[in-house]
Structures are given as C-alpha cells and as structure tokens.
Amino acid sequence: MALNLIMLGPPGAGKGTQAARLAARHRIPHVSTGDILREAVQRGSEFGRAAQAVMASGHLVSDDIMVGIVRERLDRPDAQPGFVLDGFPRTVAQATALDGLMAGRDPLIVLEVAVEEDELRRRLLSRTICVDCGSSPTADPSIASCPQCGGRLVQRADDEERVIRERFAVYARDTRPLVDYYRVRPTFRAIDGRGPVADVTKALDAAIDALGPSPRARNAGSAT
Question: Distance (Å, rounded) from C-alpha 156 to C-alpha 159?
C-alpha cells in the first residue's frame, strides 16, 4: 500500500520542513510545487514548455498546466510507493483535479499543520536569510551570523509586515478552503504546529501510523 500525503498549512507553519522530514523518514519523494515546476521547465517536458511560455509572458501558470506537471511527477516510478505533496493543491479546483489523478491509487492522507496567526506572524518577522549562502538557518533574531558559512543574516524580503499580511490574505482566500474540502474525509488530521520541530514531526508520524500503512508494511508489500 502506498503512502500518499498532502501537507497543508499557512505561511510560517513549517509544512515545508515537516514535508521534507516525513519524506526522508518514510523514504518517499518530497514533491514541492516550486521544485517540480523548475524541473519540468529544465527537462523541457510538454507541460514544462507550456509553463515556461506562460511565465515568460509574465502571467501565472494555470491550474491545467500545474495539474499536468504534478501528474507527470506522480507517474514516475519513484512516486509509486507514495509521495509527500508540498504546495499542491493550493485551491479547491486543484484538489478536485488531484482527486481525478488519484483514481486507482491508494487514498490521500491529508495533514494540516495548524498554527495561530499571532504565532505565525512572530515566526515570519523573526526569520532570517544568509546574504552569502542563501540559507535560512534560524528564526532567532539574536543570532547575527550564519551557522553554516558565517555570513551575515538579514530579514527575508518576503517577511516584511506588509508582505506577510498579503500572504495571509491570499491563504485565507484561496487555500484555507482546502481544509474545509478535506476535513470531512476520514484520512484528514490537523496537528498542532506550535511545538518544537521534532515534536511536531512525532505528532505527524503518529497520525500517519493511525491512518496509513507503517514503513515496515509498505516495504513488505513492495517485496511481494
């Protein structure tokens, strides 16, 4: 049985970090929307060429193109034991299209990393980025240098108060309805994302263990 995961959560909830940790833990690909879009363009796939033309004209990539890129990625052999979707779907229309892509596959497990807006704002305003290596190693404003390369840390340009407000508004308008779309499913769980990263990972893993196959069961099934 495949382990097919969707990670949901508002900006700053840490869903990208958790998606990467879960993918490594369960040995399935971390399918990040930004990564697969760039990869499709670089590979020159049918939908990658379409996306490149749209982006070159200054427009947003349509749902049809994005769904096509996701389908190409999920059809690859390494995604057959499962995957962690991070950044897709973003809208109910994309979720409906994903349901069509999942026909004949094992069910989706949908995990929401839930964090209150005041805590999200605090996290986002304290995030930094290294001017030398580009990493975002810490949300502690008292740390002035990058622990990876020693470079200077500055506030991320997309984490200014005005930008944060706009990101929350876009999330509430376009993406928050996804929670309502999936909440009625027996394979949906909301996880408190306020604790340390490792504790949130444990809570997510506990939800996965309750909802889907264990890594041992999946490995045994793939060996038969």
Answer: 5
